[in-house]
Amino acid sequence: MARKMLKDGELEEETNFDYDLFVIGAGSGGVRAARFSANFGAKVGICELPFHPISSETIGGVGGTCVIRGCVPKKILVYGASYGGDLEDSRNYGWELSEKIDFNWKKLLQKKTDEILRLNGIYKRLLSNAGVKLFEGEGKIVGQNEVEVTQLDGTKLSYSAKHILIATGSRAQRPNIPGQELGITSDEALSLEEFPKRTVILGAGYIAVEFASIWRGMGSTVDLVFRKELPLRGFDDEMRAVVARNLEGRGINLHPGTNLTQLIKTENGIKVTTDHGEELLADVVLFATGRAPNSKRLNLQAVGVELDRTGAIKVDEYSRTNIPSIWAVGDVTNRVNLTPVALMEGTCFAKTVFGGQPSKPDYNNIPYAVFSIPPLSVVGFSEDEAIEHTNGDLLVFTSSFNPMKNTISGRQEKTVMKLLVDAGTDRVLGASMCGPDAPEIMQGIAIALKCGATKAQFDSTVGLHPSAAEEFVTMRSETRRIAAGTKAKKNL
Q1: Residue 49: which region, alpha, beta or left (left: phi > 0; alpha: psi -120 to 50)?
Q2: Which molecular-function annotations from GO does this UniProt entry contain (predicted)?
């Protein structure tokens, strides 16, 4: 024990810890918090499971879900799949292509693996350059200020820390149906040895819609099975309908209002039965049915950390748990489960605890992107959310048009844009776009909404011509006005 002198002359004991901060989990949020805390002068340790593209309770890797088995490899596959449609479209632009165009899945897969290995190494170097000590092994909490790390050889190391941060993320879940062991999750989908010619996907969120686009773009037959009327529950209903039309237009078979009841292995593939009595044959069945927080093996109950019914760690608005020395960021808290949000939470944590700048994460106007083909991107409220949050009338502006590229290629696939405006204040409350380059465009729109932009300011902005993006500053006539007091529709 060390002692420090208080103002009134009394002595208070102060503990000497091995670390000022120990982080469990070296994904996006954990690495950001560790690096920024170290930059503020903290002595920081961090632990992460050994690397593998497919995660489990005992394997993971520095970089976490986003880098190794999430956003980055997914986007690489989306790029690869997009060439399928582009090659078709290129013929009307004068490109002479043979009728047969081969796709080499294994080549793309190796390129993807090379990239995530490169990024895994970069994340390790970022930690090292910041002076953060990295331990490879499984971490758990054994006291309010103590962490135990089990190394690869089974050796257990114990370290004390003034603050402990949990950033262990989440993991894909499987539905409890007969034959569920025959299906795969997004982890395995990103590392399949053979390209599947016939695929069935259960789910209608980000992962389901994105993999439907990926596999269809590469030539697979795709059946997308989901319980609601439209995919992407929680997004704007009008934009969800646009995505559904585009998926069908690209040749994906949609099965709304449907669930899977059983998977059976046969000589011809996996036989999939639905609750409507349909039978589908597949080489691969993907379960895209949600994720659960990685909190089971952390020993949290033993030290009194409170969890919700899903296993997510409960935190306050500064990311602190009910135990003052223990904090949590990212998907393990099940707040807004996006990589940039975990980065924001990690930054705010470091500023609050070590930077002398108490900072709360701001969850307003977070932009989202679904990398379907073409992609959907939104920021701010959906129409139903805007109705709930507006006291007066709501103005809806929409634009639907053929992108210039499609007018020559002949592809029948419209871009759709939408703005939601508070009639009383003229403030833009939400923006949506489904079409090529939507995420790239929406990042700029997000800045405008963060600054409180009005429709008049959108209208006074000079358009960038010729571009699809200029439509956002040329939607002068309202499509409809929704009167104050109107009830929002039930999300389909």
Answers
A1: beta
A2: flavin adenine dinucleotide binding; glutathione-disulfide reductase (NADPH) activity; NADP binding
For residue 6, pLDDT over 50 is answered with no
How far is the C-alpha of 241 from the C-alpha of 259, rounded, in Å? 20
Please give the share of the chain, as a percent, with pLDDT higher than 90. 92
C-alpha dihedral, 54 to 60 to 65 to 71, nearest 10°: -50
Give me the residue label for tokens 């040895």. Answer: 193
Catalytic residues: 465
Closest to 381 measured CA to CA, from 335, 345, 421: 421
Task: Say whether 258 sits in a helix, a strand or coil.
Answer: coil
3, 11 in Cβ contact below 8 A? yes
Residue 104: CB atoms within 10 A of its CB come to: 10
| Residue of 266, 64, 252, 96 whose CA lies nearest to 168 | 64
Strand, coil or helix: 412: coil
What are the strands of the beta sheet with 368-370, ordered from one edge?
A: 368-370, 376-380, 428-434, 415-422, 394-401, 480-482
* Tokens (6 digits) for 203: 């789910």
Instruction: State the Rg of the chain over Cα.
Output: 25
Per-residue pLDDT at 12: 43
Q: What share of the chain is helix, strand, coil (3-state, %, to 5)?
A: 35, 25, 40
Annotated ligand binding at 205? The verdict is yes
Q: What is the pTM (predicted TM-score) of this model?
A: 0.93
Confidence (pLDDT) at 99: 77
148 near 142, Cβ under 8 Å? yes
Phi-psi bin for 430: left (phi > 0), alpha (psi -120 to 50), beta?
A: beta
Residue 137: pLDDT band with limits 50, 70, 90: very high
- Tell me: is residue 168 an annotated ligand-binding position: yes
The reply to whether 452 sits in an annotated binding site is no
Bridge partner residues of 376 (DSSP): 370, 434
Residue 5 CB burial class (10 angstroms; 0-12, 13-18, ≥19): exposed
